C-alpha cells in the first residue's frame, strides 16, 4: 500500500508542474471568468476581472499580485464595462475578446493566418499575444492606460500611426478615460506634457530635444534607480526607462486630478517620490498670457510691467485665465525699449540662435516688430514673439533664475522709470541713513587709533554698500570713499543724495552693471557727490 502511494508521487508532482507552467498563459479554448486569473511566472502581476469600489461594473485588467490594494496598471475595456457573467479569452480567429452573452468586445482586431496563438502575462506587466513561433503579434504595452511602467514607451511613431500616451481615470472609482492625458510633444523641443482635454495643462521645463535629457524628478531617481533613454528619429520619438535593481518596484501614474506621480513601493506602502505639477505656477498658463506668477506672492498672479488685466472683473475675482494685455502698443522702432526682469523662469515657446554679443541680441529683438522680449546667455539669444506664457518670478533670495528683457513702448518705459526712481529714492534714503550711522563707528575707530604726531594727514576709507529694491529685483551699489582728515580735527560724516547715486551709475544703466551677486546686480560708480 505504501509503495502504491509512492508510485503516484511523481505523477502528482508532474501535474502540479504542468499546472504551474500554464498559470501565466491563456490558450484557445481557455477563458477567464470573474473568479479566475492568470499570474506571471514570478508572481509579479495578475490578469483577470476586477470590480472598482462602489461600482457594479467589471473590467479586465492587470494589477500587482502581492501588493496591498492591488493597484491596477492596465485595463482592456475602459470604454466597455461588463457584468460578472462575462468571459475573457482567445476567439476562434486568434483575437483577444471579452464575451458577455451574445455581445463581444474585441480587445484585438487582427487578421491572422491561423488561430494557433497564445496570450502570456510577463513579469514586466506586459500581456503579449504570440504565434506558434513565439513571435509577438500584439502587446498591451503598446496600448497603455494610466500607468507608465518600466519598459513602456512615452511618445509616438508616425510610420505605424501609433501613439504611446497615458489617460487618467475619470475618478478614483471609475477607470473609464478621464480628462487628463500624459504625452510627448511632437514639436522640436520634445517636452513632456499633460493635456486637460485639448488644452495644455502642464509642460516639463526641460526638454528631451536638447542636451539636458532628464526627467524632472529628484537627482537620486535619475542616478541611483532609473535609467532613462530617449530615442528620436525622423518619424519616431519616445522616452523609455528601466530600473537598475530588480527588487525595486516603481511606477508613474497620471491620476484623475491631473497629477503625474512617481511612486515607489517602500516599507510595504506606496511612497510618492514626486508629483507634477508641484505648485500652481507650474500649471501651464495659470496666470494667463503676459503675466508673472509667483508662488510666494499674494495674489499669486500679476501683470507684467506695461500690461494691464484683460478683464478687470475676472482678475479681481481671482480668475487669471484671461491674462493681461498691453497698456500701449509697440511703435516698432527705436522708440521702443526694454525693461529688465531679474530672477525669472523664462516663458515657454521661444526661438534660440547664436549671436556675437548682448547688443546683437537686443538689436535682433528691437528690429522684430513681433518680438515681445529676449534673453541672452553666453552668445545664445532667445527671442519670444507674441504672448508670453508661464513666466515665473522667483524670490529675491533664490540663487537661480535668469534675466529677461521685456519689450515695452517708450511711454511705458518713462512711466516705469519715474515710479521706479521714486521707490528707489525712498529705499536709498533709509538705507543710506543706516549705512552712515554704521560708518560713524568706523570713523571713531580711526580717530582713536590715529597717529599722535600732530599735523599728520590720515587717509580714511569706508566701503559703502547701498541696496535698492523694486519689483524687478534688488540692486546693489558698492562705493569706496576716500577722504583726508588732519590729526586732531573732527571727522565729518559724508552724506550723499539719491540723485548723486543715480547719476554715478547713469540711472543704474546696464552699461554700468559689473555683475551679479547674492543680493542682485552690482553697479560701477563713476563718481559720487557728497552733500
From TrEMBL:
The record's keywords, sorted A to Z, are: ATP-binding, Cell membrane, Disulfide bond, EGF-like domain, Glycoprotein, Kinase, Lectin, Membrane, Nucleotide-binding, Phosphoprotein, Receptor, Serine/threonine-protein kinase, Signal, Transferase, Transmembrane, Transmembrane helix
Q: What is its EC number?
A: 2.7.11.1
Source domain of life is Eukaryota
PANTHER family registered for this protein in UniProt? APPLE DOMAIN-CONTAINING PROTEIN, BULB-TYPE LECTIN DOMAIN-CONTAINING PROTEIN
Task: Cite the GO molecular-function annotations of the record.
Answer: ATP binding; carbohydrate binding; protein serine/threonine kinase activity
Q: What is this protein called?
A: non-specific serine/threonine protein kinase
Q: Name one GO cellular component term.
A: plasma membrane
**Membrane-spanning regions, if any?**
425-444
Record CDD domains = B_lectin
Where does the UniProt annotation place the signal sequence?
A: 1-22
Q: Name one GO biological process term.
A: recognition of pollen
* Record SUPFAM superfamilies: alpha-D-mannose-specific plant lectins (SSF51110), Protein kinase-like (PK-like) (SSF56112)
All residue ranges annotated as the Apple domain in the record: 332-409
What this protein catalyses is:
L-seryl-[protein] + ATP = O-phospho-L-seryl-[protein] + ADP + H(+); L-threonyl-[protein] + ATP = O-phospho-L-threonyl-[protein] + ADP + H(+)
Which source organism?
Answer: Gossypium lobatum
EGF-like domain ranges (all copies)? 277-313
Q: How does it sit in the membrane?
A: Single-pass type I membrane protein
